[in-house]
Amino acid sequence: MKKFLFDLFPLILFFVAFKFSDIYTATAVAIAAGIGQFIWLKATGKAIEATHWINLTVIVVFGGATLFFHNDAFIKWKPTVLYWLFACILLGGKWFFGRNLMQKLMGEKVAMPPPIWDKLNYSWASFFVLSGALNLYVAFSGTFTEAQWVNFKVFGLMALLLLFVIAQSIWLGKHMKDENEPLTALPASKEERS
Q: Where is the secretion signal located (predicted)?
């Protein structure tokens, strides 16, 4: 739980700063929080995961462009770019390198047949593609205000992620192998059948 909250730290500060100021202040706060988070990980010798690098790069690039050009379109694109980047990593790993990254990530904790791992990989990639598209709709359709987009970015996308994780957990439960159970049953001998 601590790690989850730590990873959300820049997003929480973005939301709080937006409520007290504007999108540009919130963006600057999110960039500072992301850099601060990274420095803290380095200083304490904690593991820096690939997602930390990706998140930091995307917030610095798109947040920096938002502040430099004084154009909020860049920060509104940030969740979409991040989600689509994750989808490309999952799909690219499978299509170009024959590696199922979801299996690599969870394989030590979960035992499943390869086709189920492939379905899991594709379902996560699909979730990221659809979430990124939904973010663009909320951000740029003209139907929602900037404040509604911020609420959607902070709470809506998080709620979608949690619902997806719950659905995935239920689905995975049906497909996981029991480590104590043999993978295939041996045919009964003639004596056992009679």
A: none
Amino acid making up residue 88:
C
Same domain (yes/no): 88, 31? no
Sequence-ordered list of residues with C-beta below 8 angstroms from that of 186, at least 6 positions apart, any chain: none
Residue with tokens 């709080």: 16
Judgement on whether residues 58 and 15 belong to the same structural domain of the protein: yes
Residue 189 lies in a domain: no
Query: Can you read off the two tokens belonging to residue 7?
Result: 């990873």
Per-residue pLDDT tens over the stretch 100-114: 888 888 767 777 888
Based on the fold, state whether residues 83 and 65 are members of the same structural domain: no
Contacts of 39 (CB under 8 A, 6+ apart): none
Q: Which domain holds residue 155?
A: 72-174
pTM of full prediction above 0.70: yes
